[in-house]
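Annotated sample (chain length 99).
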Amino acid sequence: MEIKIQAINFEAGEKLQDYVQKRVGKLTRFCAEIKNAEVVLKVVKPETAANKEGSIRLVLPGGELYAQKVADTFEETVDLCADTLTRQLEKYKEKQKNR
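Output written by the structure step:
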């Protein structure tokens, strides 16, 4: 699976990129058919507390799955998105079985 990381309004450090690669890479445990993942991280309204927005789009053979969350840290947004996508992948696999 190819993982693309895009940082908007800030420079993503190597530590953050490694974290995203590791966390998003774990989604292949739930579905090996994931072709690629697009991760977008951006800072919105720098003066507020929960100003980190993250989204993950997974491209699958039958379509794509998407999750977007806002939290205090980028790691937290990636975790929340990954948890949401885990549930979506389970539903996706269930639909594939029923076909």
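Annotation: The mean pLDDT is 92.
Annotation: The chain has one domain: 2-98.
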